[in-house]
Structures are given as structure tokens and as C-alpha cells.
Amino acid sequence: MFWGLSSALDFYEEYLKAFKLQPDVADASGEQGVQIVEITDNEQSEPEVEATIPETLNILICGGADPRHVIKTMAKRYTHNYRPKLNIYLLDGCVEIAARNMLLLGVALESPEAFNLISKVHLFMDIYGNTLMRPSSHQYMAAKGRTLLKMVTDDDELQRLAPILNIEGMKYKERDSLEMAFNFWQPKPQHVFKIEEYWERRVRALLGNRYDHRQGAFDWDLSMTLKDREAQQICSQEYRYWRECGIAFVFPEYEHCKPNKTFAVGLVRNGQTYLHRGYVGDVQTGPFCAFGLRSTEERMHKSVHGDNDYRSTDVTERNLLEFFHELQTKTAYEHDESRSRRYGAVQLQMGARLIYDESDAQGLENYDKPWVDVPDVKLHFVSPEEVLQLKGGAARWRSFFDVAFVAQNYFPFLTKEFFGCLREQALFVLETKLLTVERKEQLSSYESKAKELFKQAELQPVINYQVINGHNMVLKYKKSISNN
Length: 484
What we know:
Pfam families: DUF4470 (PF14737), DUF4471 (PF14740). This is Dynein assembly factor 3, axonemal homolog. One of its GO terms (cellular component) is dynein axonemal particle. Residues 165-462 form the Dynein assembly factor 3 C-terminal domain. 33% of the residues lie in helices and 14% in strands. By secondary structure, the protein is an alpha/beta fold. It folds into two domains: 11-93 and 384-483, Rossmann fold (3-Layer(aba) Sandwich); 98-339, no CATH class. Strand 8 and strand 9 (273-275) form a beta hairpin. Helix 5 (135-153) crosses helix 6, helix 5 packs antiparallel against helix 7 and helix 9 (214-225) crosses helix 10. The model is unreliable at 25-33 and 35-48 (pLDDT under 50).
């Protein structure tokens, strides 16, 4: 619910690859063109058709849970010769997730004057994947929450700080929910969020009478399931510790003691405090999938006798350093090998977690500098109710999106009418259940149902899944001009 189960994608790059488009380099006048190429089906030849890149690309991310795809798409934007305008529509079923995504995007696009690159990355990882945070991260969350509160209640402040954001698609009741989330993050004694207690309840309920032997259950899920499904980079120590207490990203120099209130959902005012649903997120896979499974540096994937040199935590750090550097500088990133620490086979000493005081973060610094500028990109947060409109094929979304991504837990909303939101030349990406601990039969059944639905909607696979027999973290299908 709070993080996706597939690796981050550059959706513009995926769109180009799906239709085999090769943009030309901008000419001396600054005009940019697109090379017309031949599009053929993977299974049989088709007549030549003309494919072009629209001046504006509309991208839907339905149930993304986190901003991983947004971050990578924006970070890699400078690498493309032809850069159309991007309208990215973020649709999640819970307003508190939208609030959390705004915070994480705020970290990614935080002014370089506020944080150096490494501090920014560790701050992001702390908020993104840890149930308990460092005091400094807790202070940032509260301070940034106040700034975000001003932004969603004052259009002038929103335009001054983050013109990239657009919340016009959210209803007033949903903006009220955003305000409640930002207020709940403030360090007040009455804003109680006992995340350790909530986490233990979830784990006990999941394991039942196996709870006393939970370490064995954790090892089984990782070694016998996830490592067989493209998650070899996750180390046993970091996975077991996350399953035990919800802290995924650990560095020896940090102490985690403050509750991460961005995991609170279902907030309702109750006098001076709030009611909420406790912790209702994932307790089986973890936040390692988005940035921590693969890197462009192959050395980080080496292992000896089954023990990785680098943890998924270290790969996550390295990838975020690359993306945040590119967002700030629009230049290629060169990684300092000494930056990544080889903790994969090292058994870190996990001491008792500190006791925190909820109200010891008063007088905080304000993080109200304008966000890093990403030209010609707009992030639209839309109402959770729009998923029902898309499911029913609402007229206002018809033939609107060039790229659409749907998370695995939103599959029940997919109907033949849903695909009416795709333009004549569009890419559709569906997240699979590969990186869950469900049985193979359930994974196979899910993919079969998805492929049958795509067939009914007359979508073509980007690759021939019948020939390529491998693990599919996502399924990529396209709607081509030749289909019509």
C-alpha cells in the first residue's frame, strides 16, 4: 500500500521502446523532430504505419503507491533529445498516500541549498521505508508538513514553491483530508501513532501460531520465494529486521526512534486528536523493490556463497544518488565506489531501539524554498473516486492517456471499458504479483486473467511473452494505430 512491487520505470523511455521511436536531435533553430519508423507486431508482420511522438504525453499512474516512476521519469528526462511535455496523473485510493507522495516528491526536489545529496537520499529512504525514523527525519516531516499545508490551502503559495504540482482534480473533502494528514504529522502529544504496536499486531495476525517461530517463516519467504522471483539483492539480515519491526533501511551511524506518521491512513478528527486505522500496509515484501533490486553497476550484484556484497539498502542508496543528482544538475552521475559500503555479509549489531518523546521537535526550521525546477512536467493529483469513473469508461477520460500504469492490487478495476481511456497509440503497463509471497499457481492465474483481458481489449504485447519464458515484474502491452 505504501510502496510498489515493481522497479522504477522511465515511462517516456518505455513509450519510445514500445513503438520503436527514435527522436532526432534538435536542429539549429531549436525545432525538434521525430523519425518515422516501421512498427511490426511481435508475432506477424503488419503493414507499415506512421508513428509519431505527441507534443504532450499524458501518463496515468493508478495505484502507484509511491513516486518511484515519477522520480525516474523526471530524472532521465535530460537524456532524451526530444522532450514532449508530460502530464502525469497520480491516482491512489487513499488521500493519505497522496499526502505522503507529496512529501517524498518534496524531498526529491528539495533545494540543494537545504541538503547535500547524501543527506537528501538518506532522508528520503528514512521516510520511504522505515516505520521508525531518525529524529532529524521526524523534524523534517513535521516542518515540511506545515509547508505542504500552506501549499494546498493557498494557490499562490503552491505556485511559488512547487508549480509542478496540480491538485485541481481533488475534491474539497479530499483537500481537507490532506490538511488532516499534514496536521497529524506535527509533534503534539495528542497525535498518537504507536507504530511498533500496530506492526506487531499485523505480524501476529498474519503468522498466527507460527509467530514464535517467525524468524524461520521470514527466512522461508525470502529464500524460497522472493529470491526466486528477481529479488536476489535483498539480504537476509535486512529482510528479517524489516519483518520484525518495519525498519528497512539501516546504517550503523543512525538511530531510529520516531514514529513515521506518513504510514497513518483513514484519519478522522476526534476532538483535539485523530482516529486512524493503525498500520495497514505491506508486512511481507518490503520497500526494497522500487530502487533496490537492480543497478547499472554490475559490481553491486556480486555475491559469494549466497551472501551479497551489497544489500538492497546499498543499491537503493546508489540509485537514489543517481536520480537526485540528475534532477538537480541535468547531467550524468558518476558514482564514487567508496560511497557504497559492503554490508551485505556483515552482521550489524541491532541494539534496543530508543524511547522517543513525541513533543520534542518544537521550533523547527521551515523548508519553504522553491522546489527544483523540472521544465514542461506537471504532476496532477486526482480524486480516488476517479478509479470508478475509469472503470466505467467515463467520457471525460476517453482516448486521453498515452501511457497508463496499473498496480497489481488495482487489477479488479480493469474492465474493457477502462481501456477506452487509451489513445490510438498508447502503452499499457500492468504490475504483476511476482514480488509477493503468493503461490506460483496464484501468480500464473493472475497473469493468465490479465493476458485474456488484454486480448479482449485488442492490445498487443510489447514482447512475445509466449516465447520469452521468464519472470515478469510488469506486463507491457500497447494499443497501436494499426489496431483500429
